[in-house]
């Protein structure tokens, strides 16, 4: 540290808020502050994650032994439809938007979002959508699966109003999501602190920003498909049956659906890109590549959508084109993984709970990505599509990937959001149960899929090995559930009993760690000058700031010794 | 954070610096309209793709002549709106021009409803075939856009009359203007593709 004028040193740049209004029910209903909306989103996501999780456990109970009769076939269909829809639209999406809402203004040094009231409106639309989906229980819930293939989604095959509730729910949450994305685009474009160019934005904000563009272009495809579906169902239109084209539904759905999987992974990558450098005590390796490959992903995510439709029977050149684009998208994804690993390389790694989740993320996500690429090989896809192999793949990327990143982010940002540290012991215990449980559930499903077990069956015959593998999967699910329960307990208990965190408990380098924990209503009163993507590093090392050091590596390509920070 | 080593003179308040002259409302609306572009395009593509397999009443039942005159009104309203914004100093006149814009939009919607009734009478209903399923979906959605826009224009007129549509609301006027021109533009495409072009 340098010599500092005493009066400046004595005063923190951003003193904590002094008096705050009481946080009662009406406060939460009417708040427009981005941090409150972020927390509301996280809460909404957690609530639906609980519901979707219980649905999953019931399905796993039904599948525990061959020929089980706990659920009827139709009920099982309703369970997996509600489970898939809930997890994707009401659990993962709200949690990701919660982080975006909470973090983007803080990371770029803004007071709030560009449209605070629109922000609240978007959240409540999403909440209403969640309610609408579960109101379908009164009418007979939807049972055609989360991607609702035509003509199963049409009146003659899904006669209950539940399918219409489903469509309404997706339109509502989708609109809420789109409004939030528009908000993030305008906020990150116009409200960045002086000196923070686009290519100096913290990586989480970068990815949330690019993600918002994907949302803006992908969700209208879903909306168009849903409107057409309702014209068919309510007004007896002909889009997807009665002379129309069921494959058209698949085109429009996956034109949304594949970008959607990247919508769910980009913010997760953002969280990982924040956590890994902090706990390796090194700047991220290849910032420009991590950020830039995101742009490639954004474009390619639309260009690969028909890889979900290899079984439709397209002409050969069409299949080959989509197989090729699918393999291509693995390149920018691989670049990111490489950069995270390179960041770990020779770092002084601190195995905190958020870091453990981040490391598990890298392994599990990479594994899921590799099975993903295996689908791009057409004969493999034809063999394993609609088997448990696909179920295993999508859960490795969605749960082993996105959810682990969310848990990492939750443990990383909890001190900022609440001012308290989570219990380390409880966190580590829960982590190991979750890792064990998760891999227990899904690793064996690769094998089941390769043995030919189809997905979306409510029971199965007692073929050799099937019963044992399914039993492992079910036991794993309960270990996983228990681990998640422990995490929930940790979150609740530490709110009162946790150690006081201070502004920057992890010694991180981005602006959100400059302000108090939890931050005051308008985040910052003064901002330091921003010259690099690590403004707090520059602040703490006035003689060795990032922007005065153009090269991070010596001639041999190794990280220079001074680049590593040793005091911890 | 430990105490800041930066002298207070070097820090800055988190002010919002405007890099562009357009308002937040304008850019927010632009992003929203991007979603609309995608949605209208996909609905129109569905119609173009499916109408080849359509049987029964088709494009020939439409009435491009009458519709054209109503369309002209809608397109003219875009010009009126530009005038309304240019003349914002003259409260009364500008307010009236906003109302006129809304009125032209509503007349267009009236024309569309008349066309719907005429077609229904002829038996060209939404459930009759592929062409009309698509036709009603995409024109209906567009009509809804016009209706919403007209309501917003009436709000703008009322605000203007009350002298409450100043700089502080430039986001509202900027966004609304962009929206209205966009809706008019979409109609030009829909009119050409549905009424004039005989399809692939
Ligand atoms: C990045 C996160 C990813 C997510 C969230 C994700 C999600 C999914 C989901 C949900 C499905 C299931 C479709 C269904 O319901 O049948 C799926 C299937 C598929 N995924 Fe991924 N995926 C990801 C990454 C990848 C990658 C990196 C690739 C290839 C490079 C890939 C290739 C595929 C293919 C080809 C299928 C189609 C399988 C089939 O049904 O035949 N995915 N993915
Ligand atoms: Cu995909």
Automatic annotation (TrEMBL), chain A:
Pathway: Energy metabolism; oxidative phosphorylation
PROSITE patterns, per the entry: COX1, COX1_CUB
Ranges where the Cytochrome oxidase subunit I profile domain occurs: 28-531
Gene Ontology BP annotations: electron transport coupled proton transport; oxidative phosphorylation; respiratory electron transport chain
Main location: membrane
Ranges where the record places region Disordered: 524-568
Composition bias, Basic and acidic residues: 556-568
Keyword Cell membrane: yes
Membrane topology type: Multi-pass membrane protein
Family membership noted in the UniProt record: Belongs to the heme-copper respiratory oxidase family.
Any one GO cellular component localisation term in the record: plasma membrane
Catalytic activity, reaction form: 4 Fe(II)-[cytochrome c] + O2 + 8 H(+)(in) = 4 Fe(III)-[cytochrome c] + 2 H2O + 4 H(+)(out)
Species whose genome carries this gene: Deinococcus irradiatisoli
Compartments reported by the entry: Cell membrane; Membrane
One family name in Pfam for this protein: COX1
Name the record gives this protein: Cytochrome c oxidase subunit 1
Keywords noted in UniProt: Cell membrane, Copper, Electron transport, Heme, Iron, Membrane, Metal-binding, Respiratory chain, Translocase, Transmembrane, Transmembrane helix, Transport
EC assignment: 7.1.1.9
Function: Cytochrome c oxidase is the component of the respiratory chain that catalyzes the reduction of oxygen to water. Subunits 1-3 form the functional core of the enzyme complex. CO I is the catalytic subunit of the enzyme. Electrons originating in cytochrome c are transferred via the copper A center of subunit 2 and heme A of subunit 1 to the bimetallic center formed by heme A3 and copper B.
UniProt key word Iron: yes
Bilayer-crossing regions: 39-59, 79-97, 118-137, 165-186, 206-229, 249-272, 284-306, 318-335, 356-378, 390-414, 426-448, 468-493
GO molecular function ontology, one term from the record: metal ion binding
UniProtKB/TrEMBL annotation, chain B:
CDD domains: Heme_Cu_Oxidase_III_like (cd00386)
Entry's Gene Ontology molecular function annotations: cytochrome-c oxidase activity
Compartments where located: Cell membrane
Biological process, per Gene Ontology: aerobic electron transport chain
Region (Disordered): 1-20
Family annotation (PANTHER family): CYTOCHROME BO(3) UBIQUINOL OXIDASE SUBUNIT 3, CYTOCHROME C OXIDASE SUBUNIT III
Name of the protein in question: Heme-copper oxidase subunit III
InterPro entries assigned: Cyt_c/ubiquinol_Oxase_su3 (IPR024791), Cyt_c_oxidase-like_su3 (IPR000298), Cyt_c_oxidase_su3-like_sf (IPR035973), Cyt_c_oxidase_su3_a-hlx (IPR013833)
Listed transmembrane segments: 26-48, 68-84, 96-113, 133-158, 178-197
A Pfam family of this chain: COX3
Predominant place of localization: membrane
Superkingdom: Bacteria
UniProt record similarity statement: Belongs to the cytochrome c oxidase subunit 3 family.
Membrane-protein topology: Multi-pass membrane protein
GO cellular component terms listed in the entry, alphabetical order: plasma membrane
Originating organism: Deinococcus irradiatisoli
Keywords in alphabetical order: Cell membrane, Membrane, Transmembrane, Transmembrane helix
Domain Heme-copper oxidase subunit III family profile: 27-199
């Amino acid at each position: 540290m340098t010599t500092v004028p005493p009066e400046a040193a004595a005063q923190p740049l951003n003193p904590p808020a002094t008096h705050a209004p009481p946080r009662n029910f009406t406060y939460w209903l009417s708040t427009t502050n981005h941090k409150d909306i972020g927390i509301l989103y996280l809460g909404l996501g957690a609530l639906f994650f609980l519901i979707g999780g219980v649905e999953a456990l019931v399905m796993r109970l039904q599948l525990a032994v061959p020929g089980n009769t706990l659920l009827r076939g139709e009920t099982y269909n309703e369970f997996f439809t509600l489970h898939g829809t809930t997890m994707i639209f009401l659990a993962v999406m709200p949690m990701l938007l919660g982080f975006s809402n909470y973090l983007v203004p803080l990371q770029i040094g803004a007071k709030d979002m560009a449209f605070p009231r629109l922000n609240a409106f978007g959240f409540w639309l999403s909440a209403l959508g969640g309610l609408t989906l579960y109101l379908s229980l009164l009418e007979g819930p939807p049972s055609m699966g989360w991607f609702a293939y035509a003509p199963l989604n049409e009146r003659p095959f899904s006669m209950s109003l539940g399918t219409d509730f489903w469509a309404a729910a997706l339109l509502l949450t989708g609109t809420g999501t789109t409004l939030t994305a528009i908000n993030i685009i305008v906020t990150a474009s116009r409200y960045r602190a002086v000196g923070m160019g686009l290519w100096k934005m913290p990586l989480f904000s970068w990815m949330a920003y690019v993600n918002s563009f994907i949302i803006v272009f992908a969700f209208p495809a879903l909306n168009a498909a849903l409107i057409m579906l309702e014209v068919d169902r309510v007004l007896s239109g002909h889009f997807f049956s009665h002379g129309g084209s069921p494959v058209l539904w698949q085109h429009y759905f996956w034109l949304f659906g594949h970008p959607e999987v990247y919508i769910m992974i980009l913010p997760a990558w953002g969280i990982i890109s924040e956590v890994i450098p902090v706990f390796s005590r090194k700047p991220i390796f290849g910032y420009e590549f991590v950020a830039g490959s995101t742009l490639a992903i954004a474009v390619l995510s639309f260009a690969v959508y028909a890889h979900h439709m290899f079984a439709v029977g397209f002409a050969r050149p069409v299949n080959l084109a989509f197989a090729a684009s699918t393999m291509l998208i693995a390149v920018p994804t691989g670049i990111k993984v490489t950069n995270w690993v390179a960041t770990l390389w020779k770092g002084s790694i601190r195995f905190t709970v958020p870091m453990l989740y981040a490391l598990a993320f890298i392994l599990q996500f990479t594994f899921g990505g590799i099975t993903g690429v295996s689908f791009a090989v057409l004969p493999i896809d034809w063999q394993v599509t609609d088997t448990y192999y696909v179920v295993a793949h999508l859960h490795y990327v969605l749960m082993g990937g996105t959810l682990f990143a969310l848990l990492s982010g939750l443990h990383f940002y909890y001190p900022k959001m609440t001012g308290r540290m989570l219990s380390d012991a409880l966190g580590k215990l829960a982590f190991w149960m979750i890792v064990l449980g998760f891999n227990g559930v899904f690793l064996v499903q690769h094998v089941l899929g390769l043995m030919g077990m189809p997905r979306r069956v409510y029971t199965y015959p007692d073929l050799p090995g099937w019963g044992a593998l399914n039993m492992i999967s079910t036991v794993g699910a309960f270990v996983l559930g228990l681990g998640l329960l422990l995490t929930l307990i940790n979150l609740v208990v530490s709110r009162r009993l946790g150690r006081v965190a201070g502004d920057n408990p992890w010694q991180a380098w981005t602006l959100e760690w400059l302000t108090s924990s939890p931050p005051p209503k308008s985040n910052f009163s003064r901002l330091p000058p921003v010259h690099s993507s690590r403004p707090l590093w520059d602040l703490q090392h006035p003689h060795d700031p990032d922007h005065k050091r153009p090269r991070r590596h010596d001639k041999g390509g190794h990280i220079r010794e001074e680049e590593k920070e040793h005091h911890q | 954070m430990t105490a800041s080593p930066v002298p207070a003179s070097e820090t800055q308040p988190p002010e919002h610096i405007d890099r562009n002259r357009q308002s937040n409302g304008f850019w927010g609306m632009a992003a929203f309209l991007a979603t609309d572009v995608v949605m209208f395009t996909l609905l129109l593509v569905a119609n173009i793709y499916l109408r080849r397999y359509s049987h029964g009443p088709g494009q020939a039942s439409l009435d491009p002549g009458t519709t054209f005159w109503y369309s002209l009104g809608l397109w003219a309203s875009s010009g009126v709106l530009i005038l309304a914004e240019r003349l914002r100093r003259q409260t009364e006149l500008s307010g009236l021009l906003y109302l006129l814009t809304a009125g032209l939009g509503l007349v267009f919607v009236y024309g569309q409803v008349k066309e719907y009734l005429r077609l229904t009478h002829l038996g060209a209903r939404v459930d009759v075939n592929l062409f009309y399923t698509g036709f009603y979906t995409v024109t209906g959605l567009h009509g809804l856009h016009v209706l919403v826009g007209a309501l917003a224009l009436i709000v703008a007129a009322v605000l203007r009359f009350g002298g409450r549509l100043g700089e502080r609301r430039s986001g509202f006027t900027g966004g609304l203007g962009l929206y209205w021109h966009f809706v008019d533009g979409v109609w030009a495409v829909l009119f050409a593709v549905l009424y004039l072009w005989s399809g692939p």
